[in-house]
Write a structure and sequence with these properties.
Blueprint (H helix, E strand, L loop, with lengths): L1 H15 L5 H9 L4 E6 L4 E4 L1 H7 L16 E3 L10 H8 L3 E10 L5 E12 L5 E10 L1 H15 L9 H18 L3 E8 L2 H8 L1 H17 L6 E6 L2 E5 L6 H16 L2 E3 L2 E3 L3 E8 L6 H17 L5 E3 L2 H23 L2 E10 L5 E12 L3 E3 L1 H11 L2 H21 L6 E5 L2 H5 L3 H12 L6 E6 H6 L1 H14 L2 E7 L5 H7 L4 E4 L1 H4 L8 H15 L3 E4 L5 H10 L3 E2 L10 H12 L13
Parallel strand pairs: 12-13, 15-17, 17-18, 18-19, 19-20, 20-21, 21-22
Antiparallel strand pairs: 1-2, 1-6, 3-4, 4-5, 5-6, 7-9, 7-12, 8-9, 10-11, 14-15, 14-22, 15-16
Helix pairs in contact: 1-2, 7-8, 11-12, 13-15, 15-17
């Protein structure tokens, strides 16, 4: 570029000193694609080629002889500040001046282009300034392309919001400023509730449109001095201006939840979505961007684990609970392969003769540090972390393995029931996995019973019926667990191919007290079940009086600590042996191992 500029400068100098004919010089300069302007020593225009006329937007007759500054208004490329014209800089300094890349040239019609190149003095042999030559070319397209690249480096391509790199840079700069002036800065971590369901049902295109609409509503909730960015996926970050308080963040969270709760029209369909917000405040909750964001995420995970669609401010107690939950998730993941999982079996007893009708396989976990962990602790963690599906498959595989072992040993064990989660029932390969497992193990399908709660069915109404009908075709028995404690129980009995009703223990408690509401409800359930040819299993039997009442009322099967607590496989084998010789109810008081 500098060599080309030198050639042009020599041509301009030759023209000025008439060392070549005007015609020869004009042909040379007109052939150049760059704009060329020559001035006298005071800045008056003496020549410009056709490229310069096109770039400036002025005809020759309006320009020649007039000051170059009248026709070339220029600004710096960064902050758009007025600048001293390069021709005047050359006249003043007698040095070549570079026209920086991105310099703004305002044309005759008010439009703008970006230019760059050089401006140099033309001097006589004695060193006297004779004029100035300015060479420039249009870099608008390249400048705009680079600007787009730079923008994408710091902004999310979908929503146009600052991306994670811009967020972290802004946090570092804001925290440095706040440290100097002893200010606090609230940081909000926002996550859309069940956004995956939108993608799964409406498609990723609709999900993207929803994210764009959410970004617009979020931006409208805040001031220009607050940063609203997209961290990735359906997670957004808000960095409030220095001097804002935790109370300001709470009020902002309420605005966000209210704004995002309004329906969206996506692809002709009305869509609603909630959000959860975690809040952490610099410097109370961390001195670095990484730590404050982490603590905001801890608060976010807490609100998501406790109902969603709300906000939560970080505390150290939350941090401890989150740490425990993550340790539990890590432990559960490891348990799938480290041997710490096991099945315990709680017997189901035929009330008429006291013999074992089968059992329910219950998952137990012995953590290497915590010892035996109650299912009420680890099952919710497994559901929240997405591990409930792999755990469910482990239970099914282990159930088949144990059943095969008992069959090979000639032990009559009746049927085995396993519990199925909503996550498992949603899996497209659920029925195929059951079918393949039964075929591989050789277990007769009628000896496997699958228990589902009403809440599981409610979460999978659209395809639960199809899957359950396919299981029925296999010959698997289906049980509705915790009957009476959930939702529209009667509709499920009509809509799904249920074989067994398991009455929740809440109906059994104090059932022996005469004239109680529980008795009336129980009679109604048993009458309904009989009319539908359903087997009834009463859960939670703890006394002989409860057993007697249930037997007299027509209940066929009982389960509860009156008969036995859940047993390890060896203890359950001993229970089966004692039950086979029982003349009445078998009450097991031995070890559980």
């Amino acid at each position: 570029m500098l060599q080309i500029f030198a050639i042009i400068a020599r041509q301009a100098q030759a023209r000025l000193f008439s060392q070549q004919t005007d015609k020869e010089t004009a042909v040379t300069l007109e052939a150049i694609a760059d704009g060329v302007i020559c001035t006298d020593s005071r800045g008056g225009i003496t020549f410009l080629n056709s490229a310069a006329r096109r770039l400036l937007g002025f005809p020759d007759d309006q320009i020649i002889g007039r000051p170059v500054t009248e026709f070339m208004t220029m600004q710096t490329g960064g902050n758009r500040a007025p600048m001293t014209h390069p021709v005047h800089q050359v006249i003043t300094t007698l040095h070549t001046v570079r026209i920086a890349a991105g310099t703004v040239l305002i044309r005759h019609d008010g439009t703008e282009i970006r230019i760059e190149d050089c401006c140099a003095p033309i001097v006589s042999d004695t060193g006297v300034l004779q004029g100035v030559v300015m060479v420039f070319h249009d870099t608008t397209e390249a400048y705009e392309m680079q600007a787009r690249v730079d923008h994408l480096a710091w902004h999310d391509f979908l929503t146009g919001l600052p991306n994670r790199f811009a967020i972290h840079k802004h946090l570092d700069e804001s925290f440095s400023h706040a440290l100097t002036y002893h200010q606090q800065i609230p940081v909000l971590c926002l996550d859309l509730d069940k956004f995956k369901l939108i993608n799964d049902t409406l498609g990723h295109g609709s999900g993207d449109k929803l994210l764009v609409s959410v970004a617009e509503r979020l931006r409208a909730c805040f001031r220009l001095i607050d940063l609203v960015g997209r961290q990735g996926g359906d997670e957004f970050i808000v960095v409030m201006a220095p001097g804002s308080s935790a109370d300001d963040a709470i009020l902002a969270s309420a605005r966000i939840i209210q704004a995002l709760a309004k329906p969206y029209l996506i692809g002709g369909e009305e869509v609603r979505i909630g959000c959860s917000v975690g809040i952490a405040v610099y410097p109370q909750h961390g001195s670095t961007a990484e730590l404050v964001l982490h603590h905001a995420d801890v608060a976010l995970q807490n609100i998501k684990a406790n109902g969603r669609n709300g906000w939560c401010v970080f505390t150290e107690e939350l941090h401890a609970r989150t740490l425990e939950r993550r340790l539990m998730e890590d432990g559960l993941l490891a348990s799938l392969t480290d041997g710490s999982l096991s099945l315990f079996y709680q017997p189901k007893i035929r009330l008429a003769d006291g013999k074992a009708a089968g059992c329910e396989a219950l998952l137990r976990w012995q953590h290497p540090v915590w010892g035996w962990v109650a299912p009420t602790r680890f099952i919710p963690c497994a559901e929240a972390s997405g591990l409930i599906g792999p755990l469910g498959r482990w239970v099914f595989d282990e159930t088949l393995r144990q059943a095969q072992s008992w069959t090979n040993a000639g032990i009559e064990f009746g049927s085995i029931a396993i519990n199925i989660s909503a996550e498992e029932l949603r899996h497209p390969d659920f029925v195929a996995y059951i079918r393949n497992g039964l075929a591989t193990s050789g277990l007769a399908p009628e000896r496997l019973q699958i228990e589902l709660t009403e809440s599981v069915l409610m979460q999978n109404v659209d395809h639960a019926g199809k899957y359950l009908n396919q299981l029925k075709e296999l010959g698997v028995s289906l049980a509705l667990d915790d009957f009476g404690t959930g939702y529209s129980s009667l509709s499920y009995l009509a809509d799904f191919p249920i074989d067994v009703l398991k009455i929740d223990r809440s109906f059994i408690h104090r059932i022996d007290a005469a004239g109680t509401r529980q008795q009336a409800l129980l009679h109604a359930i048993l009458t309904l079940a009989k009319s539908l040819s359903l087997v009834v299993v009463a859960e939670g039997i703890e006394t002989v009086e409860e057993e007697n009442f249930l037997l007299q009322s027509g209940c066929q099967v009982g389960q509860g600590y009156y008969y036995s607590e859940p047993l390890g496989h060896a203890a359950y084998e001993r229970f089966l042996a004692s039950s086979a010789h029982a003349d009445g109810p078998t009450v097991y008081g031995g070890d559980t191992g």
